[in-house]
Amino acid sequence: MRPAIFLDRDGVITENIENSYVNTVADAEAVVRAVKYAPEGIRSCCPAIRSAHFGCLSWKEYCQKANEDNLVILLLEGEEGIKNAPEIVRVKGVDIILFGPVDLSQCIGLPGESYDHPKLYKALQDMVKMCDEAGVAVMTVTTPLSNVAVARKLIEAGVKVVVFSSDVIVF
């Protein structure tokens, strides 16, 4: 995560630092702390990084702006993370929940299913409702990729960020 942030990225999409998924409030808090500078986090400091214009910016101002601007996007796609989502989405500093339908379909015994399956679509709707109440956006992918009808359905469901394709399909 550190190399991406130091290269002046606007945020990170991350799983839990130690496990496969973000499953708990503690996992989510650890990710936020890793992305944010003090006093909001424990991100390491180096004023000579590219994103701080190699030391030409006021370090204090840079840290404040980085804390405001960097997005924290948590990948939730495991059963435990979904179960704990009502608390996870309320963690201060979480901006977007990336709701992963493929791994989630595996976890709930519906391998290979898409949002056409009522149980998976209901899980998405529940996530959107939780996130709306917490002021957090939901991001997900069209399954199958590059499907306009699915993208429209996701937007109508309240998803704010839709991954429509992938570089593998584009190139």
Brief write-up:
The chain is α/β, with parallel strands linked by helices. It has helices spanning 2-6, 25-35, 59-69, 79-83, 85-88, 101-107, 118-134, 148-156, 167-170, and strands spanning 11-14, 71-76, 96-99, 137-141, 161-163. The longest helix has 17 residues, at 118-134.
Q: What is the makeup of the main sheet?
A: 5 strands, parallel
Mean pLDDT: 85
Percentage of β-strand residues: 5-15%
Content-based structural category: alpha/beta
**Beginning-to-end CA distance, first to last residue:** 26 Å
What do you see in this structure?
With 171 residues, this protein is an alpha/beta fold. It is elongated and about 50 Å long. A 5-stranded parallel beta sheet has the order 1-2-3-4-5, covered by helices on one side. Strand 4, helix 8 and strand 5 form a beta-alpha-beta unit.
Any chance you could write out the topology, listing elements then pairs?
Layout: H1 2-6, E1 11-14, H2 25-35, H3 59-69, E2 71-76, H4 79-83, H5 85-88, E3 96-99, H6 101-107, H7 118-134, E4 137-141, H8 148-156, E5 161-163, H9 167-170
Parallel strand pairs: 1-2, 2-3, 3-4, 4-5
